Amino acid sequence: MARKTTKQIATERTKRGPLDPVIAEIVRNGVIAVTEEMKTNLMRTAYNMIIYEALDFTVGLFTPDGETVSIGIGLPMFIRGMAETVKAKIRHFGREGIKPGDIYVTNDAYITGSHLNHVTLTLPIFHKGALVGFSCCMAHWIDIGGTLGGMTTDIFSEGLQIPILKYQDRGKVNDDLVDIIRQNVRIPNRALGDLRAQVTAVKTGERRFLELVDRYGRDQVAAAIAAIMDRSEAAARARTKSIPNGVYEAESFMDDDGISIGRPIPIRVRVEVKGEEMTIDLTEVSRQVRGFYNSGITTGHACAQVAYKCLTSPTDYPINDGSFRSLKTIVPPGRVISATRPAPMRWWMTFPMTIVDTVFKALAPAIPDRVIAGHHADLLVAQFHGFNPKTSEFFMGNFGPLGGGWGAKRSEDGVCGTVAINDGDTHNSPNEQIEARFPLVVERYALVPDSGGAGRYRGGLGVERVVRARTDITLNTQIERAHCRPWGLDGGRDGKGNSVALRFGTHWKTEFPNAKVLVAQIKAGDAFRLRSGGGGGYGSPLDRPVEDVRNDVRQGYVSVHEAAVFYGVVIDAETFRVNEGATLLLRAQGT
Predict the structure, then answer these.
(1) Exposed, middle or buried by CB within 10 Å (0-12, 13-18, 19+), for 425?
(2) What does the alpha-carbon distance between residue 389 and residue 145 come to, in Å, rounded to a whole number?
(3) What's the gap between Cα 485 and its chain centre?
(4) CA 88, 118, 2 angle in degrees (round to 5)?
């Protein structure tokens, strides 16, 4: 992606003139507050749980050129997609075509980088006739039409495609577009309710940002935003400079594309650090695939940006484009994270998580104190639909995202039951909400013992959820990383992979070639089980303090068997006392 040169940035700084540092700090906190209020209002007015409970959305403020000022993230992977969508709308309408009272809409997967379910609204913000920014909201609609279940092989079967259009033209709603949406979704009152909620969010952004401009002046706010970006840039550059210069490479794989079952999808990354700049090259990531695991090129750049943000400025807020001026990304078209039309993109979010994981893996030799071992890297979503026997009404919904195990660090255990990095700020939907809305019962929801990779620092544990159907349903899972298990680092062991199982009567069916179970017919009384993987361990398990292993066993995180096999610690299953002699012998033998 094109970056401003150091000379260009320096010239811009010179032109800005003096800035009141107090105003700059007020604006910094102000734009964060604006995007947080946008999030809150969207959650309060949305119709579908995936928005108001799971937080599958992103909101943001952008400069008149489409640069990110602040985003309130639910999906970290949308860090690039929203900005590029705003820029695409600017190009589409031209400066002269952007008017006060407009709201622009699209779900074009090749612009947003994600699937058609992500509908993005953008509102231009005007102050006394001058364009001062954009307010934007991307949110997941539970249904956008298209094929209800199974595997898709092109974008046309995945639902309604909305090109860049005016949802609202100088204050007047485009009723024709609303009618088209209503005609193409299965539960229109919910879809249009979410649409109105998104309008509320972008109007909130407009109103609150204008309050900042009115109070402190247009020039001062613009200068403050520029200064905020400069500070973010400086922090990222300083952190990058602390990484040893060099070229770092790593590889991993995805299980398959859901069509060529058992054929792994290669993931290779190349990272070059030179002074205060980093280049992340994704040229050797797999070509786009036939199954629906592709994403658009903005997601390819987002993979690099999410990894870079985690490594260089994870606590620097607001999240803005200044943080990425020192990052160069190389993403050729036609890869699984830069797919071209008409590649299917329904499950766009899965492969990017492993690419981020692999970037961390590549840099582990250079900065072992800043990276984590592999994590479960999947949302573990189960989609279901059927007819409610009490009302005879059609219903559709999903379980997820389900948390799982994150990789251990050099200095601490991995976290348990946490949503994967693509949706890192989203929430797991409460069981009670699902049971109240759908004819389903959650029988079990618990951490999975022994799922975290053994190590000096243990990987986080995965989660198991068992769900029984109270009526016949059709189930679809698209789960990855069953075979590519979360890897350990520096002698740490791999975590368990993700898995799915079906219960028919009293018999569990667990033998699947992967964790992708499409269009499974679940009868009333039958059940399905989703089990997320654990994180990889860090360091040799034999170096983990004996008392820590004992505590893991007491809490049910590690079994007595695995404590002995992997950690070399012999523990009585009833008293939890450590057999010191046997433990010394096992550890001396290196188990």
Answers:
(1) middle
(2) 23
(3) 19
(4) 30
Residue with tokens 């205060």: 276
Nearest Cα neighbor of 387 from 439, 442, 441, 432 is: 439
Whether residue 18 is preceded by a cis peptide bond, meaning omega within 30 degrees of 0, is no
Backbone angles phi, psi at 274, to 5 degrees: -140, 100
User: Can you tell me the distance from the alpha carbon of 530 to that of 225, in angstroms, rounded to the nearest whole number?
Assistant: 44
Residue type, 419: V
Q: How far apart are CA 450 and CA 549, in angstroms?
A: 12
CA distance 65 to 86: 9
Q: Enumerate long-range contacts of 417-420, CB under 8 Å, 24 or more apart.
A: 417/447, 417/460, 417/461, 417/462, 417/463, 417/532, 418/460, 419/379, 420/353, 420/375, 420/376, 420/377, 420/378, 420/379
Instruction: Residue 31: name the closest of 321, 326, 339 by CA.
Output: 321
**Distance between terminal CA atoms of the chain?**
50
Q: Residue 224: what residue type?
A: A
Instruction: Identify the pLDDT of residue 390.
Output: 86
d(CA 251, CA 241): 24
Write the CB contacts of 169 (distance below 8 Å, at least 6 apart in sequence): 99, 101, 102
How far apart CA 77 and CA 307 sit, in angstroms, is: 10
Helices (H), 336-476: 350-363, 431-437
Look at residues 107, 187, 150 and name the one whose alpha carbon lies nearest to residue 476. Answer: 150
Beta bridge partners of 439: none
Max CA distance (Å), the chain: 81
Phi, psi for residue 284 in degrees, rounded to 5? -90, 10
pLDDT the model gives residue 19: 85
**What is the per-residue pLDDT for 16?**
52
Question: Each residue of 249-268: pLDDT tens digit?
Answer: 999 999 999 999 999 999 99
- Contact present, 364 and 371 (Cβ < 8 Å): yes
Collapse the DSSP code of 49 into the 3-class scheme (helix H, G, I; strand E, B; otherwise coil) and give the result: helix
Q: Which residue has the tokens 């400025």?
A: 313
Beta bridge partners of 421: none
Q: Are the beta carbons of 107 and 120 closer than 8 angstroms? A: yes
pTM of structure: 0.93
Question: Are 496 and 448 contacting, i.e. CB atoms less than 8 angstroms apart?
Answer: yes
